[in-house]
Amino acid sequence: MEAGDGKEESPQPMALSRFQLSEEYGFLLPNPLTELPPSYSPWMDIAHELPQLIASHQLRARIHQMPQLNTQHLQGREELHLAHLVLSFLTMGYVWQEGEEGSVKVLPRNLAVPFWEVSQALGLPPILTHADFILANWRRKDPSGPLEIKNLEPIISLPGGESLHGFILVTLLVEKAAVPGIKATIQAIHALQHLDDERLHRALQGLAAAIGDMDKALQQMHDYVDPAVFYTVIRIFLSGWRDNTAMPHGLLYEGVSKQPMAFSGGSAAQSSVLHAFDELLGIQHSQESSIQEEEERAGAVPANVNFLESICIELWTGTQHSASPLSLDLHHTNF
Which residue from 184, 188, 175 is spatially nearest to 319, judged by alpha carbons? Predict the structure, then answer.
């Protein structure tokens, strides 16, 4: 909410801006930057040619010739997110250029060091994450046009052609469809804290409607993504180096660590959307799933993870200060 309108309003519970969430876009980065400053053109030039360089088996050679750039000149969260997006794509291309049988053991210093520094600044792991692949990787072809697949394209791409673009953009639209559900989650918490049965009912109806819209958006995956292309091409470039038989010892980040490190690859499971809904509804997972969930949250933007933790805190404090059955059992509410 912008200041300066001359009106005083009651503070909103769990204001989205506190957690780097947008009222319009939710967990998506609103209108992401598409270009870094000119001093970072060595990164951007390679990034814009990634599919062709990988197909011609020239990417590794190009990266070996790339200068090691100073990340201290990156300004603001938007530039850092774009830098992380670009460096993560370069890294996945470098590692998997020759497929699962031709992976590398070492990420060269000129890529590893700046990638590590940018990752540390953002609190993200030095690997491609959902925050890169989807949340920060989109732009409108027509800036004034609608947020629809025909008017969208990724900022950076990998092999996979139209199927890759479809996979990114359909997932993006699922995130966008979730925005009313995120707002409904906050409204439900507020209703619990104020013992407002009617408001809780409306919030849960809104959440149910949002989940329905997410499902409708997801159904477009069948129209835009060839399963064979996903499995044989896209899946490989999303693979990480944790519990991966193709890279059993992980990846050595030259100039960062003397020992290889292991990180999970990008996955829609890293999205904070369904984690938020699970927290609100009290959905419990098995111990094995809980461990996996912790790994998934490690690939999310820290401020977004704080949002999930705040849901737990607000629900706990709300139930502790209320004797109403309303605040103790969401599962018996019909919506």
Answer: 188
Quick one: 198 exposed, middle or buried, by C-beta within 10 A (0-12, 13-18, 19+)? Answer: exposed
Residue type, 179: V
**18, containing H or E segment:** none
Structure tokens at 66: 């790339």
Picking from 83, 103, 87, the residue whose alpha carbon sits closest to that of residue 95 is 103
Nearest CA to 42 out of 70, 3, 9 is that of 70
Higher pLDDT residue, 85 or 194?
85
For the ranges 4-8, 259-263, 330-334, the lowest mean pLDDT is seen at 4-8
In angstroms, the CA 127 to CA 88 distance is 5
User: How far is the C-alpha of 264 from the C-alpha of 178, rounded, in Å?
Assistant: 25
What span, in angstroms and rounded, lies between the C-alpha atoms of 75 and 37? 9
